[in-house]
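S.,

As promised, the flavin-adenine dinucleotide run. Input:
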Amino acid sequence: MLHARTEIIVADAVRLLADLCEHFSEHGDVSYADGTGAVDFGFGQARLGAEGRRLVVEAKASDEIYLAYMKMGVAEHVHEFAPVPAPEIHWTGDGVTGTIPPFFRAMRVVSAQTLTPHMRRIRLAGRDLGRFAEGGHHVRLIFPPAGREPVWPTLGSDGRIVWPEGEDRLEHRVYTIRRIDPAAGFVDIDIVLHSGEETPGSRFATGARPGDIVGMSGPGGGEIGPASTLILLGDDTALPAIARMLEELPATATVKAVIEVDGPADELTLATKAAADIVYLHRGGRPAGSCDLLPPALRALDLPAFGNDVFVWCGCEFTDFRAIRAYLRKEIGLARHRHLVAAYWRRDRAGDVGGGD
Ligand SMILES: Cc1cc2nc3c(=O)[nH]c(=O)nc-3n(C[C@H](O)[C@H](O)[C@H](O)COP(=O)(O)OP(=O)(O)OC[C@H]3O[C@@H](n4cnc5c(N)ncnc54)[C@H](O)[C@@H]3O)c2cc1C
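Predicted complex:
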């Protein structure tokens, strides 16, 4: 087990502790009272103690990536909740600072393959990928500016990422590891090609050539909870995740998958041992994220008929995400541990969306 500790001086430490614990309760098991708090994120634990102007945080986790996530999560939320100017944070104990983060790898394009009219598979090679095969399916691809030697991000002593600025500024977008083979040293990422003026991810996939360099950080999030029946919903951006989940499911699982793509040529044949019913819905040339296909498809499934041992997973555009989450939570009252709904992108907004459970 690795440990780190920080002592933060702030105007009202008890208030800050309460705000942090309140927020962390969306992501883990939390208990707090009388100036002490305990948070269990599953991948690591934090103990917090506040008195007057002093907040002490002790974090522990089983490996250096999880410890780095703990420190980063605490530091970013202290910056979010503490009054301006943000207090200084300096971690002591395990974990490195000032160097490239343990969750970062420099990757080289090995090949780029056109899968459908709107999707390219990019194979990326890198060293020491074993850790990317566990603890979540998602990564962040980091694109260096064209024609410049990349300057990669480092870890600050406060636990947050220090991104290069100016001419070395990096763009980054979130993707799913479609396939990983740590022994052979590669990952496959399936990337949707879409229109738009500045689209670093789609542009990278369109032009990727063997030898191109990108950064990759992760892994994290996005896995399904245990259940005998799975409902998987998503648009093309979630197709890689759904394909991977289907491939990894046991023969005992029952699956209903509903996937939105532009047209028949965008459908992929999906392999699974599970008893799966896979349905594709077509936009037929209408803009992605504007068709309202997934929410009515979910309603039409009559979820209660699938029994109690069900898990609903969904990745899609923000408007559909909101409708689907509201339906599951407010209308049918599906328990939190029985669904994971995420906004994978948002119409007319570049980069991170920040919508999910
Ligand atoms: C957890 C997670 C996993 C993801 N996995 C994948 C994956 O495996 N494969 C994948 O392709 N995407 C995946 N995405 C979605 C991807 O991160 C976004 O689509 C991202 O915005 C693409 O970046 P970009 O640089 O191409 O476009 P951006 O610069 O982000 O956006 C530019 C413009 O394009 C629009 N836009 C963005 N995405 C789309 C789209 N799909 N269709 C139409 N218009 C779009 C935006 O609204 C904006 O107007 C994932 C997202 C999340 C959160």
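The first strand starts at residue 2 and ends at 9. Residues 104-220 form a domain with the Elongation Factor Tu (Ef-tu); domain 3 fold (CATH 2.40.30.10).

- D.
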